[in-house]
């Protein structure tokens, strides 16, 4: 299974680096959308579905935290997991991101395996990109 990913960062170079790191990590990415700020991200979501958003916190126009607030208010987009990536690693900033609805937090710089691990965790997939086995046998299922 492959996933659609959106990378939101005001630096075009950083978006390219994150995209490259995702590819290097072995994470199974299908479509990759890019936005320069939260407002652009919200506009892209009107016509595109993504499985996960990776976003910087500090951006002009609409910050990552403001974007999170908009996502959480929307019935359709509210369940999209968001991973915040930032140079700020303070526990206060991390807590603020989680209060706004972030599902993961990673501090720059990071390694490909760190990003793959957090992507897999927030999407609930195994290292091979598939979903984990359901415990018990199929006879336990009632449908």
Verbal overview:
- This protein is an alpha/beta fold and 143 residues long.
- It contains 5 helices and 5 strands, in the order βαβαβαβαβα.
- It has a 5-stranded parallel sheet with strand order 2-1-3-4-5, sandwiched between helices.
- Helix 3 (64-73) links the parallel strand 3 and strand 4 (82-86).
- Helix 2 (38-45) runs parallel beside helix 3 (64-73).
- It is globular and about 30 Å long.
Number of strands: 5
User: Can you give the mean pLDDT?
Assistant: 87
**Major beta sheet summary:** 5 strands, parallel
Strand order of the biggest β-sheet:
2-1-3-4-5
Q: Give helix % range.
A: 25-40%
| Helix/strand order, N-terminal first | EHEHEHEHEH
Count of helical stretches: 5
Shape: globular
Low-confidence runs (pLDDT<50, min 5 residues)? 133-143
Please compute the radius of gyration using only Cα atoms: 16 Å
């Amino acid at each position: 299974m492959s996933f659609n990913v959106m990378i939101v960062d005001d630096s075009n170079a950083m978006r390219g680096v994150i995209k490259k790191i995702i590819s290097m990590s072995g994470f199974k990415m299908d479509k990759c959308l890019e936005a320069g700020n939260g407002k652009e991200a919200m506009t892209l979501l009107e016509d595109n579905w993504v499985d996960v958003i990776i976003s910087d916190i500090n951006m002009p126009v609409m910050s990552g935290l403001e974007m999170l607030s908009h996502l959480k208010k929307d019935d359709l987009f509210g369940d999209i997991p968001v991973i915040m990536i930032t140079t700020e690693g303070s526990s206060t900033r991390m807590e603020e991101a989680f209060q706004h609805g972030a599902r993961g937090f990673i501090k720059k710089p990071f390694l490909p395996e760190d990003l793959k691990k957090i992507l897999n965790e927030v999407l609930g997939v195994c290292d091979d990109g598939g979903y984990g086995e359901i415990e018990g046998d199929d006879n336990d299922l009632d449908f």
